[in-house]
Amino acid sequence: MQKRTKKWGIAAVIATSIAATALWVQAGSNEESQIRQRLTQAVPKANIVSVTASPIAGVYAVELDGGTIYASADGQYLIQGDMLQVKGKEVVNITDQAKSKQRLVLLKGIDKRDEIIFPAKGKAKAVITVFTDTDCGYCRKLHAEVPAMNAKGIEVRYLAYPRDLPRVGPNAGTGAHMTEIWCNANRAQALTLAKQGRPVPAGKADCKAPISEQFALGRQMGVTGTPAIFNEKGEQIGGYITADRAATILGLN
């Protein structure tokens, strides 16, 4: 599993870069250099993924690890928030469109063998990908809705996002617990037991679970809390939602 995960991680990074340039035009080298220099000087730990020209002249989209901000050409002024465009009688969220395109490519790069999948009953009518934390109350509440979602034709694919990972690492706390689940002979059953607060059978001793890689993917996709649910278009459709609400959002009702 470790070998597959590494390939997936590299592919995801490359795919994100391709997706970003599909909507934004690459910034000039001078502007990009100035923006990177000023931002890094002010925030040394900032992970700048890309700098691209936005639809507004003189304003550049700066893709950070987990979000997008906008900067002037000299990097002196920063704007935090979504960029909106008025198109006739509607207002389009340009920022969210760009994020969705990037997320879609990232989702397509995931090896299904690294997910915990609860298949739809019969032919799947829709698929959702959920970043989850086994110790999250709303994640547990959402999991109780999964059987009803499956009955409505919704396939649920889980990825790990232990919220305490940045503080304790992947081998302690929730990360360690989720490793046991991902390394279990019956991962779906193990995840359900964990969400019910029940003991989980020990996982395989020689298993390397992709917990850190999936957490990093969540950060790339802008996940800040759990549960975080994405549809097949890469759009984030919610945190906790009921099966009926999910079916409505996904156009199944």
UniProtKB/TrEMBL annotation:
Residue span, Thioredoxin-like fold domain: 120-249
Role this protein plays: Required for disulfide bond formation in some periplasmic proteins. Acts by transferring its disulfide bond to other proteins and is reduced in the process.
Protein name, as recorded: Thiol:disulfide interchange protein
Family assignment from sequence similarity: Belongs to the thioredoxin family. DsbC subfamily.
Organism of origin: Paraperlucidibaca wandonensis
Annotated Disulphide bond isomerase DsbC/G N-terminal domain residues: 29-95
Localization per record: Periplasm
Pfam assignment, any one: Thioredoxin_2
Keywords: Disulfide bond, Periplasm, Redox-active center, Signal
Main location: periplasm
PANTHER family: THIOL:DISULFIDE INTERCHANGE PROTEIN DSBC, THIOL:DISULFIDE INTERCHANGE PROTEIN DSBC-RELATED
InterPro entries reported in the protein's UniProt record: DiS-bond_Isoase_DsbC/G, DiS-bond_isomerase_DsbC/G_N, DiS-bond_isomerase_DsbC/G_N_sf, Thiol:disulfide_interchange, Thioredoxin-like_fold, Thioredoxin-like_sf
SUPFAM superfamilies xrefs: DsbC/DsbG N-terminal domain-like, Thioredoxin-like
Signal sequence coordinates: 1-22
